[in-house]
Amino acid sequence: MRNQLASIELRALMSELKQLENSRVSQVYELATASGRKGSKEILFQLSTSECKCFLVCLAPSAVFFSKAKPATSEKPGGFCSMLRQHLDNARLISVSQLGSERILELVFSSGNRLLKLIIELFSKGNVILVDEKGVILAAAEHQAWKDRTIRPGFTYSPPPATADFAGMGEAQFQKTFLSSEKDSVVKALAVDLGLSGLYAEELCLAAGVDKARAPFSLSQQELDRLFSSLQQLLSRKLSPVAVLDDKGDAFEAFPFA
To answer: In sequence order, what E strands does 167-255 have?
Structure first.
């Protein structure tokens, strides 16, 4: 099974995760699978509404999902989990959103008289980061540093350089971004420069009837139009989750639609 969600899959999950808005944090746990591991990003949020109790499972960078059943949790949570408990106890979840077309999930909480944001990064090594209303990092599952950003308490949070927002761009911007790609094939330009991931880039090429190995600049206007039209159709597909089974009947892959 793929070990990370594609951006379009996170987008598909948003309708489900939105159901958690206006719930309250009744407890934060570290999953049993992460027990004793420093910098664990496997966190469980127990959320309560007037009607039910549910769970938000974070397995950064692999996945994030809503569950009605509680997974096994660690009896001795680490320091990051303890910090989340301290800051988010009884906090109300105001909103859940995806940052553009990035694999970044933002959860905004109201805690007392302040707003807090939990940022779940679902790419590379992943991370879970808590920031205050000014964007200053209060805690992070793992301290990380690159030449252009630092994830550490006291620093202002900044996401990595954004890729193209394929879900929000118009046809002119789509064509400009695509044609300016330096990648040597259509499928690579769609996957990397537009952030679709290889799997959905191939799906788009198949739907549009475009040879995925062609150079982006070699496409005709008609082929560009078909690609953009196929992208819009892909984004508007009705959610109909499917699982792919192996010869033993065990699921080894899942998709938001066929």
So the answer is: 242-245, 251-255
